[in-house]
Design brief:
Order of helices and strands: EEHEEEEHEHEEHEEHEHEH
CATH topology of the largest domain: Alpha/beta knot
Number of domains: 2
Number of helices: 7
Strand content: 15-25%
Low-confidence stretches: 262-269
Shape: elongated
Radius of gyration: 21 Å
CATH superfamily of the largest domain: SPOUT methyltransferase, trefoil knot domain
Oligomer: single chain
Helix content: 25-40%
Number of strands: 13
Length: 269
């Protein structure tokens, strides 16, 4: 396995770049890598590069950038607005939603939110590890928590908000999103910015649901006949969105040539 690392430094072919403490520990103590061994690097803006370990020791490492492996590519502009959960559940949500291609996380404090303290540095570390493992070329933004009132007051009406409603009449999420896709005005719609809003384990207060549902940029949706845990609901909504309106609906790119192996000349174009 060739290690794939996020480094917050400029990447350019021929340059030697320093590895941060996290990367040094992973390469030296976990993967037991030595000078000359290959690595893959990305920084979220310059693309993905093949590289090799130029030197490594207890006090640091230098990685030599060799070639561009993939040009920079982004993810759909979909935010996940969620009520903070208990530590393990929030960590799980950040990891899996990063894998699913969320562009930004916005924690939201609602009336029934029971956990309001978040370690944003830990959440960022979870997102980095998930991006490294899933071939993602970007990192999601992680915003500081806001109250629901603050969120709605500052909301741009150009960003369509998909409300995961636990109760009341609402179209199934797949039906609602498919209606956007098949609308004759979809290609000219201002809604190329999206967000999903999920409540806490106790659900939204009735007054909160009434307030949110009446906003013109909000589409309430249902997630099926069962009551889902808050983290399950958020990931379900994100997966359905990506499969209908996001990059999950696109044809997958051609597989990358494994590092160190030439392309098969007999392979069809």
């Amino acid at each position: 396995m060739i290690p794939r690392l996020y480094l917050p430094v400029d990447l350019a072919i021929g340059n030697d770049v320093p590895a941060d403490d996290r990367a040094v520990h992973y390469l030296r103590n976990v993967m037991r890598r030595q000078p000359g061994d290959p690595v893959v690097l990305f920084n979220g803006r310059d693309g993905e590069f093949t590289a090799e370990i130029a030197k490594i020791g207890k006090r640091g490492a230098a990685l030599r950038v060799k070639a561009l492996r993939r040009p920079q590519a982004g993810v759909p502009d979909i935010w996940l607005c969620f009520a903070p959960l208990k530590k393990d559940a929030t960590d799980f949500l950040i990891e899996k939603a990063t894998e699913l291609g969320v562009a930004a996380f916005q924690p939201v404090i609602t009336r029934h939110t029971t956990s309001t303290r978040l370690n944003l540095d830990r959440l960022a570390a979870n997102a980095i590890e998930a991006a490294e493992q899933t071939e993602r070329l970007t990192l999601p933004a992680i915003h500081p928590p806001q109250s629901l009132a603050e969120l709605l007051q500052r909301w741009s009406p150009q960003r369509r908000l998909i409300l995961c409603a636990e109760a009341g009449p609402a179209l199934p999420i797949a039906e609602a999103l498919s209606a956007f896709k098949t609308s004759v005005t979809f290609s000219n719609s201002p809604y190329d910015q999206w967000a999903i809003l999920c409540g806490p384990e106790g659900g939204f207060a009735r007054s909160e649901l009434d307030q949110i549902s009446n906003l013109p940029f909000v589409t309430p949706v249902g997630l099926g006949p069962r009551i889902l845990r808050a983290d399950t609901a958020a990931l379900t909504a994100l997966a359905v969105f990506q499969s209908i309106l996001g990059d999950g609906a696109q044809r997958p790119p051609a597989p990358l040539v494994p590092i160190g192996q030439p392309a098969d000349p007999a392979a069809p174009d």
